[in-house]
Amino acid sequence: MKRALLTGNSAAAWGARLANVDYVPAFPITPQTEIIETIADWVDTGEMKGRMVTLESEHSMITAAGAAAATGVRVFSATSSQGLLYAMEMIYTVAGWRAPFVLVNVSRGLSAPITLESDHNDIMAARDSGFLQLHCSTCQEVLDSILMAYRLAEDERVRLPVIVNLDGFYLSFTREPVQIPDVDVVSCFLPPFDPENIRFRASAPASQAVAVLGGSPYSYFRYETHLAALNGITVYDEVARDFAHEFGRYHDAVEAYRSDNADVVFVMLGSFSTKAKEAVDRLREAGSTVGLIRPRLLRPFPAEQMRQLLAGKQGVAVIDQNISMGKGGVLHAELASVLYGQPKAPPILASFVGGLGGRDISVEELFEIAATTRNAIAERRTPAPRLLYTKGELREMRKLQAIAHVERVELEPRQ
Amino acid sequence: MKEKAFKRMKDLPSAHLLGTGTPMCAGCGGLEALHEIYDVLGEKTVFVNAAGCMTLLSVYPFTPFRGSWLYTAMASAPAGAQGVRDALDILLEKKGITCEEDLGVVVLTGDGAAYGMGLSATSGTIERDLDFLYICYDNEGYGNTGQQYSGATPHAARTATSKGSRGFAGYKKDLFSIWAAHKPAYVATVIGAEPLDLARKIEKAKSLKGPRLVIALAPCPTGWDYEPRDSAEIGKLAIKTGVWPLKEYIHGKVVHTKVPHPRLPVERYLARQGRFSHLFSPRRNEALLSEIQTRVDNYWKEVSRHPNPPS
Question: A93 and B101: CB-CB below 8 Å?
Fold first, then answer.
């Protein structure tokens, strides 16, 4: 074991290297590119044994990844944002093949307008695909989650691909101290991939991913995939326990921070939760019993654990770093569906959307979110969803627009 | 691998590998070609398929293939071949499988995927020098959805999206040359109606390593509007009229494997198909007919001037 300062991207590359992956189909995209550059270097120097090939698109990259996994080798790949969306047809398809492999997504906002910076709309677009999803908040978690993801994906009760998600810039380019485990300890935790019957061999002809006719066989396979994804809850818990046993770090499916005796709870995904923890500490110093709940596992959704953790809370503030146009925060809607009508469900479930395209969520905003939620508890009415945006920001936007307008008018030749 | 000699029709394989009872249309020229191709390739193959008519060959839980099959999507079958081939190579290298367990990787797509949506994936796969065989069955339109025009549709053909009196306004894309421009190991055109020429080319492709790509013109009773029993005859006419030149690209040169002599007028081919009936009735469209004839004439004139053009 050694300790090093690693970016989230570098931690992801280390995850792939330690998982002893055979095959890395790749395609560059910001902010993910550092992952495949790092792996390419290691493959060149022989530090990493696997084979890497750059495809001509993410659509082809995911096709090759799924096809190689379906032939029986261990596969790793990585993408971001537009790349994930360009691959989306195959994201759904290879999950249906039940081809187990690990894909890292470095979250980045979606076009239009085109941007490089982070939010979760890309990963939310893959929500219903059949890929399982792990969401990370630190660089250590990125490395650890990749190792765990292979165990989860390859388990015979699951056999589904897994996405490990980290936030672009906030994690991808931020250096944090990371413990890099020893290869032999990793191989105890993660033995070589046994594809069993998922393979192509001359002596055992197989047809994979064939067509179906009619809704009955179609439903059969779709339900099978759903049930396999749900098995992921139990399997994840086993994997997390084994991981803690081997490496001394326990990554629960849902992280609960000072939430036991809290009456108000933040619920959110990813790296901004580290900031929310600071807000929780400061609010508690000021006498407000606030906590934080962060699902690491988004698919399968740890519904029962979320219900238990939130039972008896007065108010829940869901902070979504995504926006479903014409509806609002996706995580908020997900949570409502698992809490509604359940005993001891929190009476207030407020929705806040923020942190889009790399916009910060400040600690002051988190204070405001807590205050708004408390008001709602007092008024016994869930408030309308809030889009985080300050007057100052709006003033700056107006100023920019005014300057651009004036410049155009000034620069136009006079008639 | 040594080339088997296919000198006469009786040298062709007598055992047929592809099962019967598939949902392809009666008289399908694509299935005819696939039958012949599969017999030469043998069962140690994995077909990587893109969306098209042939996707319906393997419908759960039945398949006519004795070997393996993977359906991908419309645009990325060559990338699927990349994944399968690379994985097999990795397993061979790691001694995870023996050589006997290895498979030939064969992409199988229609013209919709080959000429259009899948062209970028094909280009990438050739440029990466993947060891694979690509079979395109070209029925000159999006056949599985009811024959709308595609990049492979010939000039003036009536399709579900070109029903006017002049038919399809565009011209058939020269996929052979596009593929050959990548300088792969092998490119060929074939047709099921010329089984000996087809078998020789598939055998040759089988003996080579690297990207090998074959376009089979696939007469299509439903899409081209003729009786299923006429498929072989129409296929032969495509060759005799010079509409579908049988050729191969190998070692940097294009060679025509069958030069029609004497070459029949293209009308003989066109008049047999409902998709060209508007060229003949209610009155003959002399301008269009002569334009089509001139294009074919010019092609063969060029061939006689430069029999082996470098591609």
Answer: no
Note the pTM of the prediction, 2 decimals: 0.97
**Tell me, what DSSP letter sits at residue B53?**
G
Per the CB < 8 A criterion, the answer to whether B187 and B249 are in contact is yes
Question: For the purposes of burial, counting CB atoms within 10 Å of the CB of B246, is it exposed (0-12), middle (13-18) or buried (19 or more)?
Answer: buried
Core vs surface per residue A291-327: b (16+ CB within 10 A) or e: bbbbbbbbbbbbbebbbebbeebbbbbbbbbbbeeee
Alpha carbons B42 and A247: distance in angstroms, whole number? 50
Rg (CA), chain B: 19
Chain A positions touching B123 (Cβ under 8 A) are: 56
Token pair of B60 as six digits: 């759960």
Query: What span, in angstroms and rounded, lies between the C-alpha atoms of A4 and A10?
Result: 10
Q: In chain A, what's the furthest Cα-to-Cα distance? A: 82
- Encode pLDDT of A235-282 as tens digits: 999 999 999 999 999 999 999 999 999 999 999 999 999 999 999 999
Task: Give the tens place of pLDDT for each residue, B241-294.
Answer: 999 999 999 999 999 999 999 999 999 999 999 999 999 999 999 999 999 999
Q: Which runs of E-coded beta strand occur in A258-296? A: 264-267, 290-295
Question: Angle at the Cα of B58 (from B55 to B61), degrees rounded to 5?
Answer: 145
Q: What single-letter amino acid sits at A59?
A: H
Report the 10 Å Cβ neighbour count for B251: 9
Considering only the beta carbons, identify the residue of A68, A210, A217 that sits closest to B83: A68
CA B40 – CA B106 distance, rounded (Å): 13
Please tell me the predicted confidence (pLDDT) of residue B293.
Answer: 98
User: What is d(CA B309, CA B311) in angstroms, rounded to the nearest whole number?
Assistant: 6
Interface residue B286 vs chain A (CB under 8 A): no
Q: What is the ipTM of this complex?
A: 0.96
With beta carbons under 8 A apart, name residues in chain A contacting B128: 53
Reduced to 3 states, what is the DSSP secondary structure of residue A46?
Answer: coil
Residue A210's nearest CA partner among B60, B131, B101, B247 is B60
Residue B60 CB-half CA count within 13 A = 16
Q: A231, A157 in Cβ contact below 8 A?
A: yes
Quick one: pLDDT band at residue A318, thresholds 50, 70, 90? very high
Optimal mutation site among B68, B76, B93, B130, interface A, most CBs of chain A within 10 A = B76
Q: Which of A95, A77, A73 is nearest to A195 (CA)?
A: A73
Longest CA–CA span in chain B (Å) reads 68
Q: How many CB atoms lie within 10 A of CB B249?
A: 25
Count the neighbouring beta carbons within 10 Å of the beta carbon of residue A92: 16
CA–CA dist B135, A206 (Å, integer): 20
Residues sharing a CB contact under 8 Å with residue A257, sequence separation 6 or more, in sequence order: A273, A277, A280, A291, A292, A293, A294
